[in-house]
Specification:
eight-stranded mixed beta sheet; alpha/beta
Length: 433
């Protein structure tokens, strides 16, 4: 495919105009100054007032929870989890997980998200949705063990191993399987130690919730001899493999040093943290220590949408307010978190830039919208002004997955019908308890 005479976002997050971009197979094959029109099939050429940017990499989500959008509002996290979410999840089925995941994938494409670090279960059904839709994912089977079942008897651990053996590297590398501990408060120490060992043996990444709320952190210290979740996980060897730690709102100074020492990516989820009143992650303190930051949406049950522009803007504004300093973080730094850092947090080294030889995970923005003018700094317009209505196309590995309101790889009507069938079934079972 040829993108003719467009603008692109460079590796430095500046604009380069009047460019031709050639996509072959799954990669950006060539970037050149725009040349005379070469005869080509019409369907293989896109030209116009467009800006090509890297797709967004959602570094923390629970896609199936699209089924629970708006279900359980105005609640504290622990009440929300134990009185609404966990009971609902008790009745999930393969079909429900497939359709819930597919709905989130469609929404992701609409918002320019090309790849998602997804923590949940029913892994086979999630992978099926990702393979059929053409999206990328790092899927982790979240392991919880509050009852202290011996690790060798844990069904969830066996499911994680099974998912790795069946799906790791599927879809020409689009599907990667990570290891995961749900959180400190939903498992015992033996489980944490053993899953860390297993991830190291298998050579896979780790995905974990850490220090999302103050009560989580304080109760962990009471249970774990004064250790915070970050210290506890580090002592258990969980961070001895490449790790993404979601939230990290209630960190202590030593925690930040540990995250830097272990090169843990922090996935900040600002909108979810605001909605649940969990607090504000101190991104500046992390960045000052050299911790790499990526951006996640969390689930739409605790966020209500997957609007990545909104997520980036909120992350930037909260950092300024947290430090009472309007100079904290430039739009370019925030864009790096949502694109290149997000790709690296998933172990996708050849992604996250508009660059020759890199994966063609790209988003085409319409530059004729009034909110995109005037343009003194393109990164500011993207982070602070753009909306999903400005997205014309989303492409994953060179394949068009969203274009001008259409979803070539997803039957959206059937997906929505499947979602409502699943919800009706689950609520019926809940109400008859």
């Amino acid at each position: 495919m040829l993108f003719r005479n467009i603008s692109i976002l460079t590796e430095n997050y500046d604009i380069r105009k009047n460019v031709d971009v050639v996509v072959k197979d799954d990669r950006i094959a060539e970037i050149r100054d725009s040349v005379e029109y070469i005869e080509q099939n019409d369907e293989d050429v896109i030209e116009g007032n467009y800006l090509m940017i890297p797709g967004f990499y959602n570094s923390h989500a629970h896609s199936t929870m699209a089924l629970m959008r708006g279900y359980g509002e105005n609640m504290h996290l622990q009440d929300w989890l134990f009185t609404k979410i966990f009971p609902f999840e008790d009745f999930l089925t393969s079909e429900a997980v497939y359709y819930g995941t597919m709905l989130s994938i469609a929404e992701s494409f609409k918002y320019g998200i090309v790849s998602t670090s997804d923590m949940y279960y029913f892994t086979d059904d999630m992978v099926r949705a990702y393979l059929e839709s053409g999206a990328k994912t790092n899927v982790s089977r979240a392991i919880a063990n509050p009852d202290g079942i011996p690790f060798g008897e844990l069904i969830s651990a066996k499911e994680m191993i099974d998912a790795y053996e069946k799906h790791h590297g599927a879809g020409d590398g689009r599907i990667l399987i990570d290891a995961s501990i749900h959180a400190e408060y939903t498992s015992n120490e033996e489980t944490v130690i053993e899953i860390g060992k297993l991830a190291k043996q298998m050579g896979i990444r780790m995905h974990v919730h850490a220090s999302e709320t103050k009560i989580e952190t304080e109760e962990c210290k009471l249970r774990r001899n004064g250790r915070t979740p970050v210290r506890y996980f580090a002592d258990a060897g969980l961070f001895d493999v490449p790790t993404t730690a979601a939230h990290c709102v209630w960190l202590e100074d030593d925690d930040i040093k540990i995250l830097k020492e272990k090169d843990v990516f922090v996935a900040t989820n600002p909108v979810s943290n605001l909605k649940l009143a969990s607090g504000i992650c101190d991104l500046k303190a992390l960045a000052d220590e050299g911790v790499r930051i990526a951006i996640g949406t969390d689930s739409v049950a605790s966020n209500n949408n997957l609007n990545y522009f909104e997520e980036m803007k909120t992350a930037m504004l909260l950092a300024k307010v947290k430090n009472m300093d309007p100079t904290v973080f430039s739009p370019k730094e925030i864009l790096a978190m949502g694109t290149r850092n997000g790709a690296l947090s998933q172990g996708r080294e050849d992604a996250g830039f508009i660059k020759e030889g890199y994966k063609a995970d790209v988003v085409l923005l319409k530059m004729d919208s009034p909110n995109m003018h005037p343009c003194y700094d393109i990164s500011s317009n993207i982070v602070l002004s753009a909306t999903d209505s400005d997205i014309y196309m989303t492409m994953v590995d060179g394949k068009t997955v969203y274009i001008d309101g259409e979803y070539p790889t997803i039957d959206l009507d059937e997906t929505i019908k499947g979602v409502y069938r699943s919800i009706d079934d689950i609520l019926g079972k809940l109400n008859s308890r």
